[in-house]
Each structure stands twice: as structure tokens, then as C-alpha cells.
Amino acid sequence: MPYQYSNNIIAVGLDELVPNFWNTLGSLQKEIQRYKDKPFGIKRLQVGGNGRKLLIDFDSLKPNIQDAIGDPRRTDNPLENYFEFDADAVRYYSRFKRSGNSLEPDEQERYIINASVMKAVLKLEQARVQERIKLRGSIRGITATLVKDVENFNNTLKVKHEVSHNLPASEKQFKKVLNACKSDLYYPLIKDPEGGKTNNARKVDDKTEMIFNGLFKNQLHKPTPTEVARNYDAFLNGYAEVYNQDTGELYNPKDFKALSNATIISYINKWENKLATHKARSGDRQAYMGNFKPHHQMEMPTLAGSILSIDDRQPPFVYNTKNDRVWFYLGVDIASQCFTTFVYGKTKEGIIVDFYRQMVRNYTEWGFCLPHELECESSLNSSFKDTLLRPGNMFQEVKIEANNARGKYIERMNGKLRYEVEKSASGWLARPTAKSEANQLSSAKKQVIPYDILVNERLLEIEKWNNSPHPENKELSRWDYFERNQNPNLKPTNWSGILPTIGFKEKTSCNGGYVRLQGKKRAIADEGKILTGEALIQQMRIIEGKEFDVYWIDGNDSKVLKALVYMNDKFICEIMEMPRYNRATIERTDADYEAIKLQSAYVASVDAFEKRQRNRIENIQIIDNTPKTINSNFKIPNLKRYEVRETPVEVFADDPDDDNVFVPSQKAAPGWRSNFNL
């Protein structure tokens, strides 16, 4: 079939001319040679031989030959009336994936052209079938005419669109593709859509790739990819054995192909393989997650108290010649970026308990509720998972990150403290592995900062940080933002949920309605109010005159901030210091009179209960006849003994009433005057 050779020159191959117009190649070559130097006649575009095809200039052929072959520049193909580039094909092939991989751009372009031509062929076929039915003709042979039209249509595509299709030229193959496209236009045109042939042709199959990964991952000395390539070569040459430790299978070298070192290294370094092997080989979990693990992207909270992020850190300063550094444990409110809690020490021992105590002190002193949510690391906090950090005790939500630096917001704040605040201070130490040159070690001599000075300077830096402008509202400091934007939905402190874990424990008792703690008598209370009336009596029934445990915590002023009574690990009540009043009447204030009123009600509650209890008791006595001695075997001589003699009581028997007979008196009854006779 003629095709465009260059610009507007059309080339014709040997198979188009011999034997249709010249009997043999020799006769054709003779005519070419005859007109070689003449300005007319047949002309050759390319000499044949050595793998090249003989090409003839189409325009140099006789007109009858040109008409028989067909000029590809002529665009009178019937498919022109139906052809247009299919937009649906563009979308389909751009989204199609073979074995998880998208099609190459040139492959997509080829399938788009083929689908567009095939869509036009389906329309042309339908039109021809209807036309033949209308003329009552046979529909046999239509496919053959379509094949010829499709083959010639490449000329039109080249001239008008500078593209070409590669649909089958064989009628049998074309008919097969045509029928498949009638049910699904796009899928049948894809070569090897499942990728089976591609996978079968791979020199490195899944089993071989698994061996690469196993050798790279499981060896104790952490081999390099180059060492794995050498191990594989040794395995193929019989110098090493490779086996599956789980199944005991010994692999046969004859089942595997020889590969270049570059091929083996490229497979080991593929992302999907490094993702698994580096997880087992990596000793730095943070570095592994930074390279391979995607992280969440979240919006920042806007209300203070919504979430608190906490973690330990060692500021880059040393306080002795042994290069010891101070341990800090910090908590930052994410919305305000304000450090609300900070404790320090020379070791990490006990620092986490001190931290939670200090948080309770600070928030209670400021009059704020504890934060709703906490995010923390697991190393120091995992032991509190079922007690203090159980949701509902100290916080409503708790997120414990297991060695995931990117999961805690405070890591960013610690970085800002290090490089934006502390870096300019004397004695600052650079990280040995810092990426930025400005943050790397300098030639300056290491400076030792005394412990007290070091701690004081770090606290001053935190104070300065909290008083600096908030990044989202430059008119407010971080502390002002924290104060003015407290979340209104925070819950009150659950003292009974936190004091048994972080409180100080002391054994004491209740006597006379008061519990002695830290040298002071404290009244029975509940939910921050001293009890009176029946509520007080109910609690005194339980603890009065008994020993129990008191869990308490002190405030920043060292006074008792909150104290709770527990008996047999069961929460009973709260105890509070009773407000006092001035003994001198003239010096009393309104607060003194309120204290008098409260104390009077407290005492009256007990008095009233005592009176009720007393009135309930009836006047009951007892006569005790229990013998005081067993016998009288022991006697002291010359003692006068006074014995009580009991006179026998004569008992008269009652006459039976049934034997008595009533006999009336015969004498007249005396008159009333006889009562006055002497």
C-alpha cells in the first residue's frame, strides 16, 4: 500500500508493482534503468538490498497504474463521513491500568486512534446493512468491504490528521476484533490487558524477587545490595545454598536465571521492596517513618484547652564536665502555643508524676478546667493507661503515640525553642547530624552552665515565649490567647479519678467531726462545699472514729489544694479546711460572720442528730442474777459475814371454785346508821 515518504512524495513498494504491473523484478529494474537519467518515466526513491526495500516514486508511475493502486492523498474514503476522534476513548485509556500501571502515552494514543476508527466502522457497517436490506440484497461480504475501507483509510488519516491506525488487515482477524468491539468498544483493542504476557516474560519473577528481599532483610550483618548480588551469583554457581527457614525448602539454582548486578540492585531498591526490608533493618524508627510512612494532615484547633501535647526534652546545654543535661517535661496548649506546664530534674525518674501534679496545680490556680484531650509519648505514660490516662479520669480523650515524633505537635514547638530561642544563648550545643550548616557544630569550646543558672535561664525563655505574639493574632500574646479563648465545653476536674494516682497518701482518722491532715483539722465536704445537715451525718456514720486513707495534693503555695477520703480503696468524701472567724467581735468582717454561720450549722447538725438518737431510746432496765462466784472454798478467818436470809413464802392452795356453795345470810342487813356507831 502506498504511503507518504516525505513531504508530499508518495512511495510504492515492490509488492504493489510485481507481478501486478511488471512480471518480474528484473523487468521492473530494466525500466527503472532506462528512465534513470531522463526527466520523465519511472523513478526510484530507494535502492533495495541489504535489508532495505525498493521504493518507487508514486507520481512517476503511469496514470493507469496510479488509479489502480490508489493515491493515498485522495480523501474519498466512505469512513470519512463517520470518523471523529472519540473523547470517551481518551478518558478510558488515560485511566486504564495494566497490572497496576498506566498505559504509556504513545500506547494510549494508538488505542485512541484505533477506537475512533472502529467506532466509525461500526456506524458504516450499520449503514451498509440497512442499505442492502432496503434494496433486498444479501449482507454477505460486508466485512470484506469494511476491511478494504479500513486499510485505505490510513491514507486519509495521514493526509488530514498525520496519524495512522494499526487495525488488523486480515479479514479473519479484523472480523474477530469487530465482533468483540460491538459489546465493548475499548477493552478488546488493548494488547495484553491483564499484563500476563509481560509478567511471563520477566527475567525477575516474584519468587526471584522474594529471594532478593529475603537475603537483604534477614541476614544479621545487614548486607548491601551489592553483597546480595554477589550472594545470588554464588547461589547460581553452586557455592552457596539458599533455603526457606519457615518451610525448610531448599531452592534449586537451575530454577533461576542469571542476572546482572545492576538488575538485582535495582529490584532491591524498588520502593515497594525497601518499604518492607528497611522496616526490619532500620535501627532508627524516626528516620524510617520520615522516609516511608505518610503522615496525617490536620487543621489546627482554635480554642485553648481542646488538646494538650506533652513530651520530655533535654535543652542543648550541659551543667557539668560529664556532659550531663537537664531533663524537662513540657506541655503545650496547641491552639495558643502556650507552655502551660513545665517541670525539670537531673533524671527522668518521677518526673512524669511531678508533671501531672504541676498541671493540676496550675490549671486549678488559674481557674481553668483541665484540657479535653492529651497527646503524649508511650515511654513514660503507658503505665498510666488504665488509671490516670483512662479516658474520663484526667482527660476525656487520650492519644498515646508509640515513638512517633511527627504524631506529637510539641515536637515542632521544641524545635522552635531550640533554634529560635535557645540558639542565641551561651553554652548552646549543636546537633552532630544537623542538616543545615548554620545548625552544625562550630569550633567554639563547649561551655558548662551551672545547674541553677541553666534551669533559671530556660524558664525565663519559656516565660518570654508565652509572652510573645500569637502567630495567628499578633495583637495577643500566647498567654493572652490562652486566657481569652478557653473552650466552653470543657468538663470540671475529676478529682476522684486522678488523686489516687498522683496524690500524696496519708493515713488518718475522723474524731469529733474533724479529720486531721497536715497539722490542721478539716471538715467533711463534698464537691468543694462543707457539708451540713443530713448529708454530714451520712458521711460521719461511715468515717467517724475510724482510720482511713487521705489522698491529697498541694497547690503552688504549698497549701492543701484538694484532699479526698478513701476507705478500703473506695471514695467516701472530701475534706476541707474550715473557715475561721475572729475571736474579737469588734474585728469581725462579713467573711467572719459567714464562717460563724457555717460552723454553727456544722455543730448544730451533730447536736440535732444526737438529740434525735437520744429521744429514740426507750427507758429499758435489766436485773442481772448472774452468779459472781463459783463456790465458797476460799475463806479469810475472823471476818464477819452478813448473810441475807430469805424467809420462806407460804403458799396457800386455792380452793376449787366448783366445790363452793353459796349460802345466803339469815341476818338482816344493817342500816346506814350503823356506819356511824362507835
UniProtKB/TrEMBL annotation:
<protein>
    <recommendedName>
        <fullName>Integrase catalytic domain-containing protein</fullName>
    </recommendedName>
</protein>
